[in-house]
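Notes from the 1:1 (GR / supervisor)

We went over the backlog. Supervisor wanted to see one worked example end to end before approving the batch request, so GR pasted a single chain during the call. The sequence is below; no edits were made to it. Supervisor asked that the structure be written out right there so they could see what the output format looks like.
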Amino acid sequence: MGLTPNRLARRTARASARIGPWPRRLAALVCLLLAAGSALTPAPPGPAHPAVGYASRLHAGEVALPVPVAAAGVDLVRPGLQIGLLAQHRLVADRLRVLAVHPGDQTLSGDSSAVVVVAVSRSRAATIAGSATDRLVLIVDELP
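Structure output shown during the call:
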């Protein structure tokens, strides 16, 4: 015959009575000390989730913003440079740090465009996005 739940409970109770309360209390104390020790141990150095891609090059409070621009002059732009953006003869943004440049393809209308990924604050990103309906032109602040 197998062990029924009642028989198993009785055997466990008898075994606990033979062992006594001190070893169980000692085991519980050791478990508590191990848990406290692991909670107080400092975390390993480095970020828990290392940033990858554009996120690794952003400063605190910045976001990566892809900006479609006219392809003219994109060959002068490199990651790390600072650029400005013009829309309809007005300055939309200046001193934007370039994270990446993606040259565009020729469109059906013959116009070519590119995408420049820049690091900006959220408020500047909203300003630039409001001008994104216009064709944006690059101003290169420093040449490579």
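Supervisor's comment: Residues 21-40 form the longest helix (20 residues).
Batch request approved.
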